[in-house]
Structure formats: C-alpha cells, structure tokens
Amino acid sequence: EPEVTQTPSHQVTQMGQEVILRCVPISNHLYFYWYRQILGQKVEFLVSFYNNEISEKSEIFDDQFSVERPDGSNFTLKIRSTKLEDSAMYFCASSRTGSGYTFGSGTRLTVV
Amino acid sequence: QKEVEQDPGPLSVPEGAIVSLNCTYSNSAFQYFMWYRQYSRKGPELLMYTYSSGNKEDGRFTAQVDKSSKYISLFIRDSQPSDSATYLCAPNAGGTSYGKLTFGQGTILTVHP
C-alpha cells in the first residue's frame, strides 16, 4: 500500500537553529499538508499546499515557517529559527482529491 | 467553546464489547466528518468518512452524525485488542477549507483480552 514517508524520524536541534523536515508524499497525490502534535495535545493543522502554492495556513504558521516542493517528489517544512515550543511531532499528509488523506508516521522534533 | 470536543478517556473495555466514542463540535460550517485511528508513535489513519447527517457502516465500524445537535459518534462492534489506539474525530468545513481538519483531543481506547 502506498505510504507517505517522513525523514528523519527524530531530530534534535538547538534553539535558534534552522531545521528542515522532509516528506515524500504518495506519487499521484496533488494536495499536501503539514500538521503538528505537541505531546499530550491535539493534532493541529499548520498548512495546506496545492498547485505549488499555499492554499491555507493556520495562525501557528507564521513567518518562521515555510514549505516547499522543490523537485516534484519531496515536500519540506522549514523552521527558520527554532524555539523550545516548536518541539512536537510533525506529520506530513497527502491526498489525491483534497479529502481523506494519508498521514506519514511523523518526525519528532526536539528543540533544546 | 472549543471547536471540537472529545472525551479523552481513557476507555477500557473487554474484548467483544461494543464501544461508543463521541465528539461534539460548535462550528455549523462543518459538513464532512472523519474518524481517524492513531497508534502509538504513528500518524493518524483514516477509518471513516461521512458527509452531512446520517449513518455509515463499514465492517465493525459505524459512524453517526447528527448535525442538529452537532454530535458525532463512532461505534465499534465486537471490539478486538488490535482496536486499542487513540481515536480522533476530525470535522471539516469543505469549500476553501476542504483540506483543513480540526481534530478533537482523541479518546484513548484499550481493549483487553
């Protein structure tokens, strides 16, 4: 069964450093998303991406965050200057139609 | 009032029991209602997808939506230990927000043999 693949599974970074979280969506999918889940809290929407542009973003997705689909297969989330409160599980998801999408297993980001 | 509220449990039932999981929501714009299952250290996995009010059945799972009371339910029949997971309701408004899911807190379910 096709999968959404996320790398790395766990990343530790120092506060203030830039991180890039990588995702390979399912190959024929057109819609791409990032969500995050702080430990013990809800899964929260960050951003949706379609046709090479952001279609919607949440209040969390401020200027420190950016997304890119650099080569037609990868989908990345960049955090420019990480803060302690960015520590969370980050989930990438993709969908062919815009609904019922498939999530990856997540990247656990720890900011120290 | 929170947009989506879900009793976090935990809920513990014996194998074979019928499980009832519930969510309430406040946003009248929600039209699409999803239930996801999340195993420990994994991403959410889509279980059921319902549009508007009514029931939908898929194997041992039944999803119910009552838009008049803004109440969503998931029933699991003949529950199995492999059903032990966190269950997340996730309504969606459709339209320009078609891809954006608003998740509930999740209910932790344990089915013991």
Structure description:
The complex is a heterodimer of chains A (112) and B (113). The mean pLDDT of chain A is 93. In chain A, a hairpin with a 2-residue loop joins strand 5 (43-50) and strand 6. Chain A contains no helices and 11 strands. Chain A is globular, with a radius of gyration of 13 Å. With 112 residues, chain A is mainly beta. In chain A, the strands form 2 sheets. In chain A, strands 2, 4, 5, 6, 9, 10 and 11 form a 7-stranded mixed sheet that branches. Chain A has a 4-stranded antiparallel sheet with strand order 1-3-8-7, with no helix packed on it. Chain B is mostly beta strands and 113 residues long. Helix content of chain B is 0%, strand content 52%. The radius of gyration of chain B is 13 Å and the shape is globular. The chains are: A mainly beta (112), B mainly beta (113). Chains A and B meet through strand 4, strand 5, strand 9 and strand 10 of A and strand 5 and strand 9 of B.
Secondary-structure element sequence of chain A?
A: EEEEEEEEEEE
The secondary structure category of chain B is mainly beta
Radius of gyration of chain A: 13 Å
Give the beta-strand count of chain B. 10
Number of helices in the DSSP assignment of chain B? 0
Q: Biggest sheet of chain A: strands, sense, closure?
A: 7 strands, mixed
Beginning-to-end CA distance, first to last residue of chain A: 36 Å
Shape of chain B: globular
Radius of gyration of chain B in whole Å, from Cα?
13 Å
Largest interface by Cβ-Cβ < 8 Å: A-B, 26 and 23 residues
User: Assembly type of the shown chains?
Assistant: heterodimer
Residue fraction in strands of chain A:
over 45%
